[in-house]
Amino acid sequence: MSALQIHADDPRDPIQEARRRRDISLAVEPPLPDLPKDLPLNVTSLPRGILTARECEITEKTPEGLVELLANGHFSAVEVIEAFLRRAALAQRLVNCVTELLPQAALKRAKWLDNYYKEHGRTIGPLHGLPISVKEHISLKGWEVNFSFVARIGTIVDTDGLALKAMCDAGAIPFARTTQPQTLMHLETSSTIYGVTTNPYNTMLTPGGSSGGESALIALRGSPLGFGSDTGGSIRVPAGHTGIYGLKPTSTRLSHLGLTGIAGGREQIPSVIGPMSTSIGGLEMLMKTVINSKMWEVDPSLPPIEWRDGVDWLLRGSAGSRKLKVGIMWDDGLVTPHPPVRRAMRETVEKLRKDPDIEIVDWAEFSMKDAYEIWSTLIFADNGEVMLNLLDDGKEELRPLTEWIFKHNPHKAKRSLQEVWDWTAKRDEFRGKFAHAWHKTGAVDSHPIDVLLTPLYIGPPAKLDESKYWNYSLLFNLLDYPGVSFPVTTVDPTLDPIDVDFLHKGDIDLETHKLYKPDWYKDAPISLQLVARRFEDEKVSNDFHISPI
Amino acid sequence: MSALQIHADDPRDPIQEARRRRDISLAVEPPLPDLPKDLPLNVTSLPRGILTARECEITEKTPEGLVELLANGHFSAVEVIEAFLRRAALAQRLVNCVTELLPQAALKRAKWLDNYYKEHGRTIGPLHGLPISVKEHISLKGWEVNFSFVARIGTIVDTDGLALKAMCDAGAIPFARTTQPQTLMHLETSSTIYGVTTNPYNTMLTPGGSSGGESALIALRGSPLGFGSDTGGSIRVPAGHTGIYGLKPTSTRLSHLGLTGIAGGREQIPSVIGPMSTSIGGLEMLMKTVINSKMWEVDPSLPPIEWRDGVDWLLRGSAGSRKLKVGIMWDDGLVTPHPPVRRAMRETVEKLRKDPDIEIVDWAEFSMKDAYEIWSTLIFADNGEVMLNLLDDGKEELRPLTEWIFKHNPHKAKRSLQEVWDWTAKRDEFRGKFAHAWHKTGAVDSHPIDVLLTPLYIGPPAKLDESKYWNYSLLFNLLDYPGVSFPVTTVDPTLDPIDVDFLHKGDIDLETHKLYKPDWYKDAPISLQLVARRFEDEKVSNDFHISPI
Hints:
The structure is a homodimer.
Chain A: H1 14-25, H2 46-50, H3 53-59, H4 63-71, H5 77-95, E1 98-101, H6 103-120, E2 131-135, H7 162-169, E3 173-178, E4 190-191, E5 195-196, H8 212-219, E6 225-230, H9 236-241, E7 245-248, E8 272-277, H10 280-291, E9 324-328, H11 339-353, E10 358-362, H12 369-379, H13 385-393, H14 400-407, H15 417-440, E11 451-455, H16 471-478, E12 483-490, H17 507-514, E13 525-532, H18 537-543
Parallel strand pairs in A: 2-3, 2-6, 9-10, 9-11
Antiparallel strand pairs in A: 1-3, 4-5, 6-8, 7-8, 7-12, 11-13, 12-13
């Protein structure tokens, strides 16, 4: 890919400089051994052959397990951070997911925490010593934030993201910064500066995007928990493509204060930050820690809603006790998911039906055809100029998906203010209709559905440059509903053959259908999405999660 | 004023038709006697000389008192609604505050409620039989909504405002619709269709606006409780100018679903609906009823925050008990309030200082100079075209304040989308700085201020066409903080002489200073404003209200 190398021969080239900084930060002692020449497509088992048993023991714990073992002194903060620095450095060699590691700062903090623990006999907070990774664009005071734009290399920020700071105040240690795609508007991860990030389960495939550095790193257990961001699926899709968990929260649950923006003042489709983790408990850990720091006292955009982990939504044990009501959206009526996704839906619903405490309701017909148009019109209302100008400033070639979504997108145009007001009103009308349909799933003596189960993405993780159908994830950005992605199965060519009797519903449906070739996707993770109404983030990341079934 | 009469000679004139409908709706039996020829400037005591003692007894109750007496059968719903219909018809003759009454619909509903009460021995809900008034633009299904635009006369709406419907579901009866100014963007109330609404305490003065029909009607006890709306002060200023109570809630506490808009999709400065009443208890009654109907289940723009009337914000009686901390914003640093407003501030603060459970903190210097520019730029970002075109369609002359704010406003301009995004980012920066300043009033071992006491308006209710300085009220629209206006005193020329040593801070300060002439404003109500942080509406309309002191 020439776009990734255009500056390669210039010694003062900012791209080479950024990569050099990354490479220096990756040095570990003792050095990692050379990797075998012919790596398998699935690299997830390689770390176990390279790292020590103790390092694997540490890095394969869930975040909940880690904080417990740090709190009772079983692990020290220093040995935990050292193990993750080594595993992250290895993950970088395997799937190219890191923009830099932060060994000095992280080790210094870990030492301080260990001393505090020794001196006071207790932890500094509930996340004492927990390593966390952070998508590159989420601000860390004193560090460069380039958003993967060549033109922004060297831009140092002077604030910490407030949400990230709340995690640090509770004892967490940021130690790794991760890759994101050009413009952050792809469901895959490749950029001029850092190249292509690949999927640990099959390096011919994408780990998703735009938080694909996080997903690849966490899937390889190079980090237990991290921050991604999501405007159209960018947390959920990469989490889903790599078999980990990801939550896109309701937009005003986590503060964006302290983040550097490149699109300030655009509030029509909210971009959100949120957790990605090896466990669903990790999602809740981040949400609870950040929300209960009461950020609404300094960020007036947030409503004062604490994390409600004590609420018994089903009134269990009381006279009003009821079943968990799960709506099923089999597809969006426009583009049929690939066979393994349909199997994942069927198998999950079959399991749910066997639970006597769960009631299943098919989601009624609802026209989703406007969703992409409204979302896309509002997102690209400046005709993509801010992003395209930044690319031009950096003399970057457009990646194929940048070309596709910024140039060939039928809904991108330079809009007038009045047009954006009109489309915002259409957005509100769409939101109102969807909320009405949700509410209608209940009746006088029955509760509306608690959660909605949907496909997350049209198929398995795609090959590079092929992730073009966003509707299943962006629908919930348009609605601003919280959604979790959770792993269900992997592609099995025997169980998931091509649908030979496929009847397409339109051109995009046919084009998407043709992308599926079972053998290409063997072992690729297949995940689904669980959604709740606005502000009911707790329902999908705690009480009601159905992933362990 | 010729603008109010341009169509007077045309029998098919829509204005005459609208007034005819209004006048027919005002007929009461037995008819009201003719009014004396020379009415005093202060007409507030006239109803007692015209209505029966029983009618006065009913109409002079607070909303809390009324629902209690309706619930225990002391009053019937029919006699209550009949008394208010008579008093509202009288108020219309005195101050021209009504666009129409709804005698048939209201009486029919009252009879139904009385029958229900007889049959079941209980009320239908907590507001059983309570009459409520509604600013004209707030939708009532099947009725015309013209927003005071001639061009919209005859426009029938097909939905009820959801918040209004929640009140009706609890037993309230809408019976009166009230006047609003041309474009709804004045702090006074005059329109081509309905003419000028005047202040019951001094009919040479304005009752404020844009909810001036509500304020004048409620001040005359022609309604106990009503819905106004507020984008820059339109609930609080008219409530303040007429000695009643008004609350501008946080923007997403009450639903706007079902309302007809003329500016759909504009979300940069939220317009809100809210309660106006003869008592502060009335404000809480409306808020609690509407919010606890759980509108967030059908309106996804609302966070699920119930009305918190049981919260003991001060932790009274516990070890953590603390004082109520009240910040004092003496002025905005730009334009000095008139002498009676300054006296109201001084007297209120003196009383507060005597309360051992209250701690007073002066609000630190904070630059307010950007507030009007940001608010105004965002509000008039279409150069006022939507409004001005509607006026043109109706062949309306511009009222002087329309001319002033739409034509001579230095911040109105036709903005590009990018400009509005930039100004939205400036709005967020302003909000962030203000929240930080509020937070800073606390320290490690002390709580930030609970509420902020401020002037509400620069002076007493103005003469027509003179209400031009909005900063004290619009500041809290820009911030989206809840604010209550509450009566403190009345103008006393002896206590409130012209400030002869006045040193002005600039042209607007000097111009505003010159407007004050004590004798003109004798007996005019002076009110102040109590503000809380976003979503803490309960703090200013319940627990912490300081008006009764």
